[in-house]
Design a protein that fits this description.
29% strand; 28% helix; alpha/beta
């Protein structure tokens, strides 16, 4: 059994099309859910992001939606066996076509963002990773429809194509509030973690975080950021 152990819960990922990785750890740790009440995890996969937010905010009620049946099986096990099961409702459905009963003050997602040129032979992996299954415009349009006026939409995206998601957001009346550049090593940006909101004319808060130093060791800032989640000292 493929198992990733956190401090307060474990992630079974035997059936998952995508395993827990640095992207999930970064996004899950950086999302500010401190004053949120109703959250939506788009493409929950193993349930890791939902569980991380539930750990951070005991008042947050989360709907975790996943289209892939086998990944949903893992997520169900992870949520039910963890200490935050009362906070998370798992839905096996297509995010784009599912009818939600209410809006959310927090939406978050580690969405598919690769282009077709990098496709694998595994259709489930393609669904989890490639934009033709859920492209930037579709994601932002539906998120905008579901987001409360004072809500926040958090996501992670490749740094070199960040303009695509920011343009799609603006087209759907979502405005950049936080822009965190993730460097794999010093001076090498690889990801953008973005916080989008419907509120206009707010200043954009920009920052950087470097995951590893020039020798390949985790930086102190990354270790501090993820210290509440990693079960072992990095």
């Amino acid at each position: 059994m493929s198992l990733f152990k956190f401090k307060h819960f474990s992630i079974v990922q035997t059936n998952a099309s995508l395993k827990v990785g640095t992207d999930s750890m970064l996004l899950g740790a950086l999302i500010d859910c401190s004053e949120k009440k109703v959250g939506l995890d788009v493409g929950t996969g193993t349930g890791v992001l939902a569980l991380m937010q539930a750990q951070k905010n005991s008042e947050l009620q989360i709907t975790a939606i996943e289209i892939d049946e086998l990944s949903t099986t893992d997520a169900k096990q992870n949520i039910e066996n963890g200490p935050f099961s009362s906070q998370i409702k798992l839905v096996h459905a297509d995010f784009l076509h599912h009818k939600f009963d209410f809006k959310f003050d927090l939406i978050f997602s580690n969405p598919p963002f690769y282009n077709g040129a990098l496709k694998s032979e595994n259709q489930r992996t393609n669904q989890a990773k490639h934009v033709d299954e859920l492209n930037a415009d579709q994601l932002c349009k539906k998120a905008s429809q579901l987001l409360e006026e004072n809500g926040e939409f958090w996501l992670i995206w490749p740094y070199d194509s960040r303009k695509d998601i920011i343009d799609s957001a603006l087209k759907n009346e979502l405005h950049l509030r936080k822009d965190i550049t993730i460097e794999g090593k010093p001076g090498i940006p690889v990801r953008s973690i973005l916080c989008l909101t419907k509120l206009r004319d707010l200043p954009v808060l920009r920052s950087e975080l470097t995951v590893r130093d020039e020798f390949g060791a985790y930086t102190d800032e990354y270790k501090k950021l993820t210290s509440d989640f990693h079960s072992k000292k990095l």
